[in-house]
Structure prediction request, 130 residues.
Amino acid sequence: MTMQTRHLPEAYDALAPDGSQIRVLAATASGSMAHCSLPPGQTSVAVAHRTVEEVWYFLAGKGQVWRKLGEREEVIDVSLGTSVAIPLGTRFQFRNTGDTPLEFVLATIPPWPGHDEAYRVPGRWPTEED
Prediction:
């Protein structure tokens, strides 16, 4: 790995397996970062990860995040300043409940390995994919 400097691109780099817009940021051998955006009125597909954990920090918008790990399940409201952890094996889904994009930065540990990392799980809310 080399030292990296990345600026937030205007256009998204990829659609995540959950349907959100991903803009790739800097990475090291131990972790990676990305900017995630979900348009108003959208709900992500519910997924879980095979090998990575994530930490999210919300920058803009309003929404809700559903997480389920074992018997523990919760829905939390998120907005600017909220941070959430997505431990390995957590089922999760998020939705934009506001009228502007829901935006957050996420750190992935270890770095995101590729599209097959996330797999669909039954979710809390219906989506266009259902």
About this structure: The chain has one domain: 14-114. The radius of gyration is 14 Å. The first strand starts at residue 14 and ends at 15. Residues 14-114 form a domain with the Jelly Rolls fold (CATH 2.60.120.10).
